[in-house]
Specification:
This protein is an all-alpha fold. Helix content is about 60%, strand content about 0%. It has one domain (about 5-95, about 125-160): Bromodomain-like (Up-down Bundle). The protein starts with a helix and ends in a 6-residue tail after the last helix. The model has no long low-confidence stretch (mean pLDDT about 85). Keywords: Membrane, Transmembrane, Transmembrane helix. Its main location: membrane. It is a multi-pass membrane protein.
Length: about 170
């Protein structure tokens, strides 16, 4: 029995999204890198892509194709989040998330200041993380490049198979 190309594309897309998430988690758990709030948001489109890819595997062809379109849109949303993150790292604009800003202490006692500190340390979003020593491309920029290529690959597949057999 031949497996339809659409099902292969959905499975490969889910695996690709899982690999991207796996690299992010491995760099955190084993590499000791601390993700910022924007990094954590950039992971959600990959989770959604995994779910859409897996659900698409059990859907009829027309709905599976829609699932693949939604998967590509999810990855494009991840590229948008990554582009915001790259802009914050490059100081082009401030982060849209309040978690990315350091707390501002204008007045109050030391006890008040300590009470307002977060429970666990966070990494500022405007401080780039470089995964590969000597390569001046931050993880956010790598994610942007990867997400654009990933979504572009899916779009190419969808375009070239729009009227073909399964």
């Amino acid at each position: 029995m031949m497996i339809p190309r659409l099902k292969v594309a959905l499975a490969l897309s889910a695996l690709t999204a899982a690999a991207a998430l796996g690299i992010a988690f491995a760099s955190e758990w084993y590499g000791g890198l601390v993700p910022c709030a924007l990094c954590l948001i950039e992971r959600w489109p990959y989770r959604i892509a995994i779910a859409l890819g897996l659900v698409g595997l059990v859907l009829p062809r027309a709905l599976a194709r829609i699932a693949l379109v939604l998967l590509a849109l999810s990855i494009l949303a991840g590229a948008a989040a990554a582009s915001v993150h790259v802009g914050v790292e490059q100081q082009w604009w401030p982060s849209p998330l309040p978690e990315c800003a350091a707390p501002k202490f204008a007045t109050g006692s030391i006890a008040d200041r300590l009470a307002s500190m977060p429970a666990k340390p966070s990494k500022p979003c405007d401080e780039p993380i470089y995964l590969i020593p000597g390569l001046p491309v931050s993880m956010a920029a790598m994610n942007l490049i990867f997400a654009l290529g990933f979504a572009g690959g899916i779009a190419t597949f969808l375009w070239t198979t729009r009227r073909s057999a399964p």
